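Hi L.,

You mentioned the student needs an example of a multi-chain input paired with its predicted structure. This one should do, with 633 residues in total across all chains.
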Amino acid sequence: MEQKWALADPTMGIIFVAASFAFFYFVGWYSQRAAKSSTDYWTAGRSIGSLANGLGMASSYMSLATFLGVTALILKLKVPFVYMWIQFSLSIPLITLWYGTPLRRMGAFTPAHFVRERYGLRTSYIVASFMILIMLMYALGQMIGVAKVFEMLFGINYNVALICGGALIVGYVTIGGMYGTSYNAAFQMVLMGVAFIIPLGAIMKAMGGSGWYFPPLLYADMVPAMLERVPDFFDMKYGFKWYFALIPCFTIGAMGLPHLGMRIYTAKNLKSARVAMIWFTFFCGITFSATYTMGFSGVFFQATSGTPIAPTDLDKITLILNSVYNPPWVLALVIAGAIAAGLSTISANLMAIGALIAQDIISTFKPDLEENKTKIVNYSAMAGAGLISILVALNPPTFLVVSILWAFGLAGVTVAPLVILGVWWKQANRYGAMAAALIAGGTYILVSPYVAPNLTIAGGLPAKLGMSGALLCVPLSFLLMTVVSMVTNRIPALVDKLPHEADKKLVDGIHGWTVYNEQRYNSTAAGVIVSAVSLFFVIWALMPGGW
Amino acid sequence: MNKAYKKEIWYTLGFTVLLLMSGHLGLLFVAFPALQGHMIFGFPSQYIIPVIMGWLGLMVIVTIQTVLTNRLDDEIEKMDGVVDEI
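Structure written out for the whole complex:
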């Protein structure tokens, strides 16, 4: 008989969580003392060292799902899930390579800041609106998750848990700004790593695994027993299109997430930003690999112990395994780690929403605000972003609580192509950018099962996660951007309305060239190639089958 | 067009290909099913190779990327304004 899992004694958990919050507030208060201007508040004075930045980058990516949620996905998807997760480690290296360092050189606060300089105010409002929507969806999932953990831990009503937990989170993020968020995120990553990997080693040892001293990779001796009980665990059950769609949806999608790019802008210098990405790949890799081991152990536990887990508890496997194999204080540490994972993501999301509101919207209406008034705007934008997240999480509209993975695709369609082409191709212009964001973005929303279920490109999971939509709309966005830009650049009446020379000089400047050269980043052939390749993928995405 | 500019373009394209390959090795196993099912380090090949390449392989690529692109920055600084047709 399946029994619903419940936390036996929450006392230790409450102590660990309370202590970690006290620490986050102290770090937030202590580090914000260095913030003297808006640049300090939103980019930590561009002073974060490579190790702290690498930890912070990884931490922003480790969401509550690392502890609660992905284990359920592993049970459902098995090996394809691992493929889906592995590629998330590409985000920061690709962002750094394609636009992170140029935007850091430009002195950007957010990617929307670059869009404003490159394509003008109207386009930046559209992009900033999409970014705020994406960040809100992202933060909402984490806020709801943290509230549910608080509900379980304190035995209180969900709404009370959400308001109290949410207020605590918004408080420390608002006080700390990017300084506090960065140093807290670094600490949260360490806490997550310790709380996830060391207890996992103890679980593996108790299960009889001989590689318990390095859980991320050493569990091969458990594989034969797993194959005997769950023969399809390592099967690849989807078609080529499913695996290929991971690229536009999640790899390019992650390149459009503003809170990841913003981490690069906090770096001391470009070299430090690049070293940070080595640390990022290390910390991300070790935690992700341990996540697969945890999922493997969950399936192994269910298959070998004969203990059935209720379907509603599948996302709590990490907690269940720790409650079965480890003492209560270890379970308490794991809960503190799970909350730290949620907080690190929410704080990065809130920083992005706050910066978008303060720097990309309010400051464009009131560009000459005095410094003390700017400070009030900064704090208000942060606190307001948090308040909105809490209020929306109280009774979230259905369209906002769709899978966060779907929001990755939206970022890949509406943000990434504009920034990538804007940095690397002088011929990209605001007409192309607006057409790409509005038409491709609108199409992505339209072909999702949440708006028009009959219009989806592929049914089931690929449509729900945004994979089929992104396979069509990411190349569509690149296609529109290149074709519309090339056509409008040849219509004198339209070109006259563009600050073309300034745009082109900006492109040279952010790559580090102080002496302008017309030929650099200005190839028409490159535009034609991108259009042709994009058209091919649009047609391929529309062809039935292959999933 | 000077050397540093050409190098910047080639590094960006080259590292993109390498990064995508390290993070999307699953595609190889779907495209060539005969590669699946071989046991490597005690795990099925289609599982452990993408896991290792997506972590340790990626770290190696990113380290090389860091060294080369940092050097390139210095080169761009030096070559700024130099138009050496090649």
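You could point out the following to them. The mean pLDDT of chain A is 88. Chain A has one domain: 11-542.

Best wishes,
N.
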